[in-house]
Amino acid sequence: MSIRPVALPRSAFAQTVRVPGDKSLSHRALIFAAMASGKSQVIGGGPGADVASTRRVLTHLGVEYDGITIRSKGVDRWQSPEAPLDCGNSGTTLRLLAGALAARPFRSTLVGDASLMVRPMRRLVDPLEALGARVRLGHGGRPPVEVGARGPLRGADVEIPIASAQVRSAFELAALQAEDAASIHGPTGYRDHTERWLTAWGLGERTDDGRYRVLPGNVPAWKYDVPGDPSSAAFLWTLAAARRDAVVTTPEVSLNPGRIGFLQVLEMFGAEISAEVTSMILGDPIGSVTVRGRGLFHAEVDGELAVAALDELPLVAVLGALGEGVTRVRGAAELRAKESDRIAATVDMIRALGGGAERLDDGFVVLGTGFLEPGVVETQGDHRIAMAAAVAAIGVDGEVAIDGAEVAGISWPGFYEQVMALWS
User: Fold this and answer.
1) Which of 54, 99, 96, 101 has its CA nearest to residue 76?
2) pLDDT digits (tens, 9 = 90+) for 109-165
3) 363 near 343, Cβ under 8 Å?
4) What distance in Å separates the CA atoms of residue 124 and residue 172, rounded to the nearest whole number?
5) In terms of Cα–Cα distance, which of 337, 345, 339, 333 is closest to 120?
């Protein structure tokens, strides 16, 4: 479908906006609550379709939901699913639950929508099989993903070549159910929510050599207050950064170090940033962020910063097009394994709006002209492309049409209304 073209005024604004609950933390809270025995609560969880996929899959394992309350008999008493478990569009749902289910004495098959069924899953195999799990993938290392335990899982010391929070979390959820301790090591820069929570519960620890060691045990029933999602807030931060003297404040968002690399990128572009930690959830920082637009320049994003800002890189392209100079993103080949080939989709978005952009094997280059032109953006079924296109409209003197705009509901239902409300 197409939404009504977006035409945004050029005036500055100053608003405080509470963004939806963090998607990454919502997935984890639901899964940990389901692994625990007893009654847990997840307050303020993300409202999007991806989080709903995790909730739906867990109900097929015998977990009960009543609003914010989750009742489970514990992971040891999850029931064998009668049919393949449909994870929708959510790679997080599939990968994390593949780990949790890898220790169960029955076989589970995880599938998803057309987009998810072509995403790579081979990186799950070696870490889970090192623990003694059985993992089978579909053609080309893609879903369906079939997992189950050959017998009791055993401890293992695993090395992974990429900074992947999802692979690490899958390993850790399986390792919690092993007979003895296991450890994992790999590049830094990932979002370490799972490890912070396990450490807070005494179920894991970081070793002197940089490994994370999982100590098998039972996850406690818990009350989770989920903070706002910085990946959602990033779209509003970008709107402020792109308009001189515009200000957006987003209170109570996750400030996990692996989630806020984009704030560093915004500073490169010239925005004024203020961030303050105000509370914690299981050792994970939460706080308020204010972004003020001061005019746009350009940025060079690569290495650990590219990893830490991976979900926000389409917005880097938007800022680059609306700024001055040449913006380059490197070290982001992982973008090709997202809901779309996000390198190609990002470059196509900028070109569709009259901007100059070129693909690289591991990123892209964008020429800053200070403006974009009216056009039609094809989302390619990717919610972040749809949302980035709405943000790009701030630099257009005219209208932007977003074909497939409804995919924004995967992470933030009501996103377009919130964007327009900044000028109300």
Assistant:
1) 101
2) 999 999 999 999 999 999 999 999 999 999 999 999 999 998 999 999 999 998 899
3) yes
4) 12
5) 337
Residue 396 contacts by C-beta under 8 Å, 6 or more apart in sequence?
A: 7, 8, 353, 371, 372, 373, 374, 375
Tell me which residue of 116, 102, 267, 222 sits closest to 173, measured CA to CA: 102
CB 379 within 8 Å of CB 407: yes
- Listed in sequence order, the residues at least 6 apart from 76 whose beta carbon sits closer than 8 Å to its beta carbon are none
Q: Identity (one letter) of the amino acid at 416?
A: Y
CA distance 186 to 189: 10
Pairwise CA distance, residues 214 & 175, whole Å: 6
Peptide bond between residue 144 and the one before it cis (omega within 30 degrees of 0): yes
User: For the whole model, what pTM was predicted?
Assistant: 0.93
Structure confidence by residue, pLDDT tens digits, 218-273: 999 999 999 999 999 999 999 999 999 999 999 999 999 989 999 999 999 999 99
Percent helix, strand, coil in the chain (nearest 5)?
35, 25, 40
CA distance 21 to 87: 19
CA-to-CA separations, 255 to 210, 286, 421, in angstroms, rounded: 21, 5, 25
362 is catalytic: no
Contacts 24+ apart (CB under 8 A), 270-278: 270/241, 270/294, 270/295, 270/296, 270/297, 270/323, 271/237, 271/240, 271/241, 278/251, 278/252
CB 185, CB 192: distance < 8 Å: no
Cα–Cα distance for residue pair 49/93, rounded to 1 Å: 11
106 closest CA partner among 144, 142, 77? 77
Q: State which amino acid sits at residue 266.
A: L
Catalytic residue from among 311, 348, 382, 403: 311
For the chain, counts of helices (H) and of strands (E): 13, 22
